[in-house]
Each structure stands twice: as C-alpha cells, then as structure tokens.
C-alpha cells in the first residue's frame, strides 16, 4: 500500500473517531440532502455536532469514497457514521428512524436525550442506599433493575460537592421528599458521574434520613446512553452529567 493511500485511510479514520456523527456526502446529491435534513431535524439544538464532509468539494474526495467503500461495502453517498460505527446510507437511515433505532443510537452517542416512552438503558452502576442501621452501603446493580415495578424520580447533577449541587439542588429534593412520596413516588435517585467513594462521602455530609439513594455512574456509561452527558473538559472535569430530572415508571421514562 502506497503512502498516499495510507494517508487517506488515516484521514477517514480520524474523521470517524473524532466525531460522534459524521456524514460523508456530496453537495449535489439529493439522497445526501435528505439524510442531512433527517439528522438535522432529529438533533435540533445539537445539529452543530454533525460533521459533514462534502466529497465533491475537497481535492481527494474520490480517494476517500474508495476507502469508505473498502470499509463499509457502500459505493455511494451518503455514508453515515454514528458513534464510530457505520449505519449505512439514506435508505438505511430512514429505516432506522422508522424502527426507533436511530433515536437510540443518537442517545448512546450523547447527541439526543431520552424522551418520554424510552426505556432506561441497562448498564452496571453502583447504588448507595441507607441500610437498617443507617449506614450507606454501596451495591453493584444493573440500572434497569433499580426502576422495575416502581415509580421513581431520577435527577442528575454535574458534580458532587459543587456549590450549586450541594447548596441548592440536592437540598431541594430532600426538602420536598415527603411531598413527592405523597404523590405516588416510591423512590428518589440522585445520579452523578463520580465514583462510589465520592458519592458516599457527599451523601454522608447531608442529612439523608434514608430518603434519597445515590447512583455512582463512575464511567458515565448510563448518563452517556441516556444522551445526557456534557463535555466539561475545559473546566478540567472530563465528561459529566447534565443537570436534569425525570419521572420513571417501571423502567420507562414518563416525563423528562
């Protein structure tokens, strides 16, 4: 393989890995236009996260298209990648949308949040609850099992111990816990992209009185699959949870 082809392959790989959503397109292609319109409509305010590479407007566009064909078996455009994985072209995109799969893929790529009617993703998390003797105990569980058969309030915070989370956000749920219970809520969870040790220390610093349970999503997998991750690297905090709240009934989001 000559050096020129290696450089093209490297460029394509960088585009795919470096963007949560990349569309290899041609500016004059009607199918490309349709695919971009579908994605723009679904992404809404996150539409700027879509990376579009117009192959007919760059010098080595034909070489890139050949590499894409070698990688995916698709000879035409558009050629769409979500979360580093090929999802096909325009017809495949429309099929995925019709089946509801496209929404899930965009959620998992943190490009679109869960909406009412969506099921909570199932990943391994650590939950901290008060035991009978009042001590906080960490348990590794599948996230979906936490919500089965119950009505739950789940709220997310960007960081344990941050001033706004500690002084206002968490205390407001502690204050209104009895009111939520009176309206049929069985349990209240606070989730953050922090490890279980940090969450345990933070919970212990507040008067929980067995009211609120804490989910330590240390790797951010649940938050990412819910489409609620935010990039806080500029603040030196890595990937974090957005501030959000939702009502979950038997594992299904009822209100977001």
UniProtKB/TrEMBL annotation:
Q: List this protein's GO terms for biological process.
A: cell redox homeostasis; cellular response to oxidative stress; hydrogen peroxide catabolic process
- Residue limits of the Thioredoxin domain? 114-256
Q: Reply yes or no: does the keyword Iron apply.
A: no
Pfam family of this protein, just one? Redoxin
List the GO cellular component terms. Answer: cytoplasm
Which keywords belong to this entry?
Antioxidant, Oxidoreductase, Peroxidase
Coiled-coil stretches: none
Listed GO molecular functions?
thioredoxin peroxidase activity
Transmembrane regions: none
Q: Which residues form the active site?
A: 165 (cysteine sulfenic acid (-soh) intermediate)
Keyword Oxidoreductase attached: yes
UniProt record similarity statement: Belongs to the peroxiredoxin family. Prx5 subfamily.
Give the protein name, as stated in the record. Answer: Thioredoxin domain-containing protein
């Amino acid at each position: 393989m000559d050096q020129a082809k290696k450089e093209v392959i490297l460029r394509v790989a960088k585009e795919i890995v470096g963007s949560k959503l990349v569309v290899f397109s041609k500016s004059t292609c009607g199918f490309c236009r349709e695919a971009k319109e579908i994605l723009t409509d679904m992404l809404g305010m996150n539409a700027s996260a879509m990376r579009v590479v117009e192959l007919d407007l760059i010098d080595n566009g034909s070489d890139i298209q050949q590499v894409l064909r070698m990688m995916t078996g698709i000879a035409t455009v558009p050629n769409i990648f979500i979360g580093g994985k090929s999802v096909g072209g325009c017809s495949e995109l429309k099929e995925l949308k019709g089946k509801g799969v496209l929404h899930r893929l965009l959620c998992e790529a943190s490009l679109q949040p869960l909406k009412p009617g969506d099921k909570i993703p199932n990943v391994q998390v650590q939950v901290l609850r008060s035991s009978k003797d009042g001590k906080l105990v960490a348990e590794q569980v599948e996230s979906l099992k936490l919500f089965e058969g119950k009505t739950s309030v789940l709220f997310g915070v960007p960081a344990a111990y941050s001033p706004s989370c500690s002084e206002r956000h968490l205390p407001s749920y502690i204050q209104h816990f009895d009111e939520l219970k009176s309206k049929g809520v069985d349990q209240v969870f606070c989730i953050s992209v922090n490890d279980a040790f940090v969450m345990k220390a933070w919970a212990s610093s507040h008067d929980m009185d067995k009211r609120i349970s804490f989910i330590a999503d240390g790797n951010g997998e649940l938050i990412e699959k819910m489409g609620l991750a935010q990039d806080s690297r500029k603040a030196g905090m890595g990937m974090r949870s957005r501030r959000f709240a939702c009502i979950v009934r038997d594992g299904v989001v009822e209100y977001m």
